[in-house]
Amino acid sequence: MGKVWLVTGASRGLGSEIARAALDAGETVVATARSADAVHDAFGGEHDRLHAIALDITDAEAANAVAAETVERFGSIDVLVNNAGYAELGFFETFTDAAVRRQFEVNLFGTMNVARAVAPHMRARRSGLIVTISSVSGLVSNAGGAVYSASKFAIEGWMEGFAQELAPLGIRSLLVEPGMLRTDFMDGRSASFGSIDIPDYAEAVAQYRAFVDEANGNQPNDPKLLAARIVALASQDEAPSRLVFGDDARQWAGAKVDQLRQDIVRAADRG
Ligand code: NJP
């Protein structure tokens, strides 16, 4: 038996591609989403080394139960892929407080729930890899992405520190910052949009919605390629701790780094 992978958000998009790539590499995969049937549908039914379990990542007890069941059945969790997430898209003031909290409940606290459930099992074996699907929006924010970016910046800050706490215990971390991937991410099946009309933003919001509609289904990056990279990196002993994926992501992240460097130098010049 190869390694044991636990993947969240494996019913669609990047998560299902990662699960598929891991299966193709001979690994055992516990694939989760809010409905186990949705996972089975994504894989066209049963597969020897695929085990579908329902997990809403906002349910901490369910996350503990899935981690315990995985270890009991397969002996370990070697790779956790904390992938499940979605986007609240639109201008900040067009969101209710409840929508902003929902974004954090899933993207940040849900992701923490799963890490908290899995880390004790990895610590006990002094080994494991936690792959966290962040976003280039965890490094760079733009008009229309403030709420989503806030949740992904939070993931970056949390995971950057947590990774240093885990490293001495033999557990590695890979933070993944993709650019735009061709998944359901921008589709009404996944994304939510701000619901409050504010005339001051009306024109800019309409332009932003047109950009999202245009981009939906035409994103430049193939999730299969990213999934293959993640599976390849997981098999290396000296894998990098970050993967900025896609020309768009590398360009945005590079511009942000340049801007930060300039800001730091300018601030120093002013004493
Ligand atoms: O999106 P999509 P992606 N509990 O919508 C699951 C990040 N990212 O594959 O609805 C458990 O095709 C959902 O399952 P379900 C992004 O932020 C993307 O692109 O239950 N699962 C489905 O399997 C996210 O972290 C882009 O059937 C929950 C999956 O999440 C990751 O990539 C760019 C759930 C979403 O599939 C995967 O998103 C970027 C919950 N509460 C980062 N809520 C991009 N696509 O452009 C949702 O930089 N799911």
Tell me what the structure shows.
The chain is of the alpha/beta class and 271 residues long. It has one domain (4-86, 100-183, 222-269): Rossmann fold, CATH 3.40.50.720. The chain has helices at 13-24, 36-42, 60-74, 97-125, 146-166, 202-215, 223-234, 247-269; strands at residues 4-7, 28-33, 50-54, 79-82, 88-89, 128-133, 171-178, 192-193, 242-245. The strands form two sheets. Strands 3-2-1-4-6-7-9 form a seven-stranded parallel beta sheet, with helices on both faces. Strands 5-8 form a two-stranded parallel ribbon. Helix 4 (97-125) packs parallel to helix 5. It is globular, with a radius of gyration of 19 Å. It starts with a strand and ends with a helix. 5-hydroxy-NICOTINAMIDE-ADENINE-DINUCLEOTIDE PHOSPHATE binds next to helix 1 and helix 4.
Keywords, separated by commas or semicolons:
single chain; 271 residues; alpha/beta; Rossmann fold; two-stranded parallel sheet; 8 helices; globular; binds 5-hydroxy-NICOTINAMIDE-ADENINE-DINUCLEOTIDE PHOSPHATE; oxidoreductase; Short-subunit dehydrogenase; oxidoreductase activity; SDR_oxidoreductase; KR_dom
**CATH class type:** Alpha Beta
Percent range of helical residues: 40-55%
The fold-level CATH name is Rossmann fold
- Bound ions, cofactors and other small molecules, one mention each: 5-hydroxy-NICOTINAMIDE-ADENINE-DINUCLEOTIDE PHOSPHATE
Specify the structural class: alpha/beta
Biggest sheet: strand arrangement: 3-2-1-4-6-7-9
Total count of domains: 1
Order of helices and strands: EHEHEHEEHEHEEHHEH
Overall mean pLDDT stands at: 96
Q: Tell me the number of helical segments per DSSP (H or I, 4 or more residues long).
A: 8
> First CA to last CA: what distance?
60 Å
Ranges with pLDDT <50 over ≥5 residues?
none
Query: Which CATH-level-2 architecture?
Result: 3-Layer(aba) Sandwich
List how many beta strands DSSP finds: 9
